[in-house]
Amino acid sequence: MFEGVKPVTHMLGLVGDSISASFTPPMHEMAGPANGMSIAYRPIDLAVLDVGPEDLAEILVWARRLGFTGLNITAPCKQSVIPLLDGLSERATALGAVNTVVFRDGQAIGHNTDWCGFAHSFSRNLPGAAYADVVLMGAGGAGSAVAYGMLDLGVEKLTVFEVDPERGAALVERMGKLFGPQKVQLGTDLAAALASADGVINATTYGMTGHQEGSCVPAELLRPAMWVADCVYLPLETPLIASAREVGCRTLTGGGMAVEQAAEAFRVFTGVEPDAERMYEAFDRLVEAKGKA
Hints:
CATH topology of the largest domain: Rossmann fold
CATH superfamily of the largest domain: Leucine Dehydrogenase, chain A, domain 1
Shape: globular
Distance between the termini: 34 Å
CATH architecture of the largest domain: 3-Layer(aba) Sandwich
CATH class of the largest domain: Alpha Beta
Order of helices and strands: EHEHHEEHEEHEHEHEHEEHEHH
Oligomer: single chain
Structural class: alpha/beta
Strand content: 15-25%
Helix content: 40-55%
Largest sheet: 6 strands, mixed
Number of helices: 11
Strand order of the largest sheet: 2-1-3-5-6-4
């Protein structure tokens, strides 16, 4: 064998819509050698393949046949994948959303690393920020994870805004059972909610490359005293983050969540704890390279 060449020890994939530009594959591939292994990670882009969430079952079958260790799952498949799995981790069950599937011992088990990804990023990158009263935009897979992560951190009042009333109500009910019904509510008046909130989090796909343009939070509703966070990192400077900086808000881009959830997913896939600092450095290198492209 050629010197320096390592066998592929893990084959991974990312399933989602319009995700070919995702940093998740290269972050995992860069983390592999640093942890004594080789990793091949491939995007499985529904838009490129001209398939949809209804084809998830077939994608899972072929991933297992081809020897994948597991798959990351992103929008719009984080909830629709659940009925196709053999089991869920405790966190994924509580969240009702899966972003990591591991194939092991003949079973496909769903996990969720988004919740701790956002919570860890928030604690690390917005130190000292108040979070008693928080507004959350979106109740899909990412919204569920963010809601869980923030309530787990100690949010006292979480107001959820969601265009799909049934999905919003389901998230509020699920989180209410876990953390207490007094701590989470479905919002009806965004201006009123933001007027007293410590911060707002975008967990929708607004502003994401290949998805809805613009921001789901009108700039005129932002206040300098509040912080603004986005789960989107492609682009890193979303319209929401840009408008928040113009107002003078503290901001949290989706980059930290991308790194922290990837680090936890790496651990789930491989059983090895990666160096989060190195993964942040890898992310920064990817951002720099994209800026030069």
